[in-house]
TrEMBL record:
Protein name as catalogued: Flavodoxin
InterPro entries linked to this entry: Flavodoxin/NO_synth, Flavoprotein-like_sf
Biological classification of the source: Bacteria, Bacillati, Bacillota, Bacilli, Lactobacillales
Matches recorded under SUPFAM superfamilies: Flavoproteins (SSF52218)
Flavodoxin-like domain mapped to chain residues: 25-166
Name of the coding gene: fldA_1
Chain segments annotated as transmembrane: none
A GO MF term: oxidoreductase activity, acting on NAD(P)H
Any one Pfam family match given in the protein's UniProt record, by short name: Flavodoxin_4
Length: 180
């Protein structure tokens, strides 16, 4: 089956275990790479046209404002084949209790009807928050599979969690290819 990992992530200052730390690579990006390696598919980053602030407090202000205003931040164009993929592994951090508005813009921009989405998120204690409800509302004609929520401070130790989560994908692959 055709699949891609599409994710939004943010490096720089982040909150981890109650402390602000500097990240050279965003937590969601770490998980996206693990998934891409496991299922042998390309990963595609949703990259905002206007960069988010590097400092954590300012970034939170921007995220809260986007959510309050229901803004849809623009992103750099993703490869055309993303729209042709049957399966998307969709990753994002939990921001302000839900998915970042740039992800909502992606879902509204590209045709999601009849796709299968495996959502994954990184968080600091609130798991998906309202993200799965938002995802189902934005993509009513899409099959949403069980998601994977990974605590941000544990992304580098999440190999087993990712592999266990991907069992559902492997089973679907076997059914699709007629294997038992």
């Amino acid at each position: 089956m055709l699949s891609k990992v599409v994710y939004f992530s943010r490096k720089h200052e982040n909150l981890m275990n109650g402390k602000t730390v500097e990240l050279s690579e965003g937590n969601t990006q770490v998980i996206a790479k693990k998934i891409g390696d496991e299922v042998h598919c390309d990963i595609v980053e949703l990259s905002p046209l206007e960069k988010y602030p590097k400092r954590y407090p300012e970034m939170v202000e921007v995220a809260e404002k986007e959510r309050q205003n229901q803004d849809r931040p623009s992103f750099h164009k993703v490869p055309e084949e993303v729209e042709n993929e049957r399966i998307l592994f969709l990753g994002f951090p939990n921001w302000c209790g839900g998915m970042p508005m740039i992800v909502a813009n992606f879902l509204e921009t590209y045709e999601m009807t009849d796709k299968i989405i495996y959502p994954f998120c990184t968080h600091e204690g609130s798991a998906f928050g309202n993200s799965l409800f938002e995802l189902k509302k934005l993509c009513p004609q899409t099959r949403i599979m069980t998601g994977l929520a990974v605590h941000g401070s544990k992304v580098h130790k999440a190999d087993k969690a990712v592999k266990n989560w991907l069992i559902q994908y492997e089973k679907m692959e076997e059914q699709y290819h007629g294997k038992k």
